[in-house]
Specification:
The chain has 7 helices and 3 strands. It is mainly alpha-helical. Bound molecules: manganese (II) ion.
């Protein structure tokens, strides 16, 4: 079955003034849609390769599958990772675990912001639960699919591709990162953490 672009869980202007509606609209309707389409295309091409028993382009389509599939997954999380300003958190078990694995919530936020700011080119900052190591970790993703650890379950993700902030923030990625903390949906992050613990 073909993948579909998920609806935004809020209106285009719900994250103002920290995340402007023009960027949200283009980012969701065009950029995210592009990854959904690219993922479907890669899956179709690989199905056709199996039918025709012709794997001459397998390397190309596997790369497309990783790139667009990861793009679709990360954007789907990104939208639910945000909510209108005024959210409280983190608290509860997630806060406790941040203290255990990073020293404090403040230290977590500092490292996450620094990692996001330092992504080389286009990519993401990712807070993930590593079930194998039983700890939270911060990773950078280059593009969507590079530099991960296998098995990590993303809890909170921040898109720092230029398309994610350029209209409002131009080249000031750091300003976008600071503003973004105002619209983090901590409730959803806590929910994802609780689910990840069961993996
Ligand atoms: Mn994006």
């Amino acid at each position: 079955m073909a993948h579909k672009l998920p609806d935004l869980p809020y209106s285009y202007d719900a994250l103002e003034p920290y995340y402007d509606q023009q960027t949200v609209r283009i980012h969701h309707d065009l950029h995210h849609k592009g990854y959904v389409d690219g993922l479907n295309k890669a899956e179709q091409a690989l199905a056709q390769a199996r039918e025709q028993d012709n794997y001459s382009l397998v390397k190309h389509w596997e790369k497309e599958l990783a790139f667009h599939g990861s793009g679709h997954i990360l954007h789907s999380l990104f939208w639910t990772n945000m909510a209108p300003a005024g959210q409280e958190g983190p608290d509860g078990e997630l806060k406790e675990r941040m203290g255990q694995d990073f020293g404090s919530v403040e230290a977590f936020k500092k490292q996450f912001s620094a990692a996001a700011a330092a992504v080389e080119g286009s990519g993401w900052a990712v807070l993930g639960w590593n079930p194998l190591f039983q700890k939270l970790e911060i990773l950078q993703a280059e593009k969507h699919q590079n530099l991960t650890q296998w098995g990590i379950i993303p809890i909170l993700v921040l898109d720092v591709w230029e398309h994610a902030y350029y209209i409002k923030y131009q080249n000031r990625r750091g300003e976008f990162i600071s503003a973004w903390w105002n619209i983090v949906n901590w409730q959803e992050a806590a929910h994802r953490y609780t689910k990840a613990l069961k993996a």
